[in-house]
C-alpha cells in the first residue's frame, strides 16, 4: 500500500526513519521489488508502527533490548544497523559496551566477541562521519 493512503504504514515509516535514518530507509525502499514489497509492508507496519511506536518503552530502552536480542541470535548485519540506531536513540558508546558485556554472560562470550567487533567498526565509522 502507498504510505499516502495507509496512515499506519506512514506512521511506522516515520518511526523507522527516526530510528534508522533516511539513508537506510531510502535504500530499503529503493531495493523493494514486487517480490519483497509485502515483507517491507510487514516490517514497516508491525515492527516500526505496532512495536517501536508503542508508548510502553522509550526508544533508548527499545535499542537496549534490540541489541541484546540481535547478539543472542547472531544477526550481525542487523546488529550493525541497530548499533547505529542505538547511537541515534541517545545511547553512548559506553552504554553500548555495557549491553555487549551483559550479553557475554547471557548469550556467550563468542557472541559478545563478534558483537564488540561489529560495534567497534560501526562506532568508528560514525565517528568518521561526524
Kindly describe this structure.
Residues 38-120 form the Carboxymuconolactone decarboxylase-like domain. This is 4-carboxymuconolactone decarboxylase. It comes from Dactylosporangium vinaceum. Its EC number is 4.1.1.44. The chain has 130 residues and is an all-alpha fold. Helix content is 78%, strand content 0%. It folds into two domains: 1-56, no CATH class; 57-130, AhpD-like (Up-down Bundle). The chain has helices at 7-20, 22-30, 37-51, 59-73, 76-88, 93-106, 109-129.
The number of domains: 2
If helices are DSSP runs of H or I spanning 4 or more residues, what is the number of helices?
7
The counted number of beta strands is 0
Here the CATH topology of the largest domain equals AhpD-like
Residue-averaged pLDDT, rounded? 94
Low-confidence stretches: none
Pattern of helices and strands: HHHHHHH
**What is the level 1 CATH name of the largest domain?**
Mainly Alpha
CATH architecture of the largest domain: Up-down Bundle
Mind summarizing the main beta sheet?
A: none
Q: Compute the gyration radius: what is it?
A: 15 Å
Helix content: over 70%
**Basic shape:** globular
Strand content: under 5%
CATH homology superfamily of the largest domain: AhpD-like
Secondary structural class? mainly alpha
Cα end-to-end separation: 36 Å
Enzyme class: lyase
Domain Carboxymuconolactone decarboxylase-like: 38-120
Keywords: Lyase
Protein name: 4-carboxymuconolactone decarboxylase
